[in-house]
Amino acid sequence: MFHGPAADPESLAMLRPIREQIDRDDYCVVYDADPEYRQEVCYSVGLTNKGLPELIAGVEDFADFPQGAPNLVHHLVLKLLSEGGKYSEGDVHEFHGQWVRLVPETLYKVHCNVILALYGGAFSLLHVAPCAPNPTERESVRPICLN
């Protein structure tokens, strides 16, 4: 695991395709796991360059989502960037029927090898956690016609 921006030639070579994708698309989504593959996660990389928190999701949390957690994180990043990148802890979002809440994350931080290699500890991380629809929002209701 890295503890600061990587400078050795092997790490720089491993990071080159990721840097190229970030330069092209503003971000990328990385799949990673602990050495025993007990915890599998995917996370964004590149949002730190924009002064935004990176997003991380547990793969098992979205096993039933079409194309899994990487697809969810990818589309959530696109949505948040298209909305001006104004998101923060506690925000609730919906994507194709899946509701998520952005919560502070420290547990998975040690699994973010690519983020750690690029930024050291100079990044923030929000966990994309599954949740129920936002209870403060009411859905529009259609009246029942009895005739």
3D structure, described in words:
- The chain is an alpha+beta fold and 147 residues long.
- Helix content is 27%, strand content 23%.
Rg result: 17 Å
Which regions are unreliable across 5 or more consecutive residues at pLDDT < 50?
138-147
Main sheet makeup: 6 strands, mixed
Tell me the strand percentage band.
Answer: 15-25%
Shape: globular
Class per helix and strand makeup: alpha+beta
Q: What fraction, in percent, of the residue positions are helical?
A: 25-40%
Give the integer mean of the pLDDT values: 82
Distance between the termini: 68 Å
Give the count of helical stretches.
Answer: 3
> Topology as H/E string?
HEEEHEEHE
Work out the number of β strands: 6
Order of strands side by side in the largest beta sheet?
1-2-3-6-5-4
List the helices and strands and how they pair.
Layout: H1 9-25, E1 28-33, E2 40-45, E3 54-58, H2 68-82, E4 92-95, E5 98-104, H3 113-119, E6 125-130
Parallel strand pairs: 3-6
Antiparallel strand pairs: 1-2, 2-3, 4-5, 5-6
Structural key phrases:
147 residues; alpha+beta; 3 helices; globular
A few lines on this structure:
The protein is of the alpha+beta class.
